[in-house]
Amino acid sequence: xxxxQNHIAFMxxxxxxxxxxxxxxTAFSPNVLKSRSYSTSLSMAVKFDKASGKWYTDDPxxxxxxxxYGPIGSLYRAGPKPFLQRIFNADTYDQAVLKYMAQxxxxxxxxxxxxxxxxxxxxxxAYQKLQExxxxxxxxxxxxxxxxxxxxxxxxxxxxxxYFFGNLIxxxxxxxxxxxxxERTMELLSGDDSSxxxx
Length: 199
Hints:
Elements: H1 3-27, H2 39-45, E1 46-49, E2 54-57, H3 60-63, H4 71-78, H5 80-88, H6 90-104, H7 108-120, H8 122-133, H9 148-173, H10 177-190
Helix pairs in contact: 1-9, 2-6, 4-5, 5-6, 5-7, 6-7, 7-8
């Protein structure tokens, strides 16, 4: 293969990766065709069962768990705290979302966005809600950080962080940097320094 053919092959791969990345990013973008006209009727569909002490919905397909975005959507919108809550405490998370839907009269996506923001930073979320009651703008937590550019940047950043810490742990286990540092610290603490220098 000539240099020109290598360059063309590289450009084809680069365009394919970019196209797939944008496609992935738009998969998480908000659906602008959805109407919010039905949100007032949702509070009637979510009810509290006093016998079981749990919230439930009359229409699980539209308001039940799995009818909006999943845990990866929470990770993109608000970070690792709500993502981990959804993984390890799925029922508690779902109950909180249903309760918010019933009290606020909103759809599931908006309730999930607010719950994710609350789990990420309760003080900022409460402050924003107080400001909204006083006439400030209403923050759209359901679509926060979901612009295609932001999704791509978050994905690249996330892979970079995972690679960095994975590499650090791998090198530490394999006797790399952490082992050398530990051995040097033990030498200094024991006073057994063969080089004669303390630093």
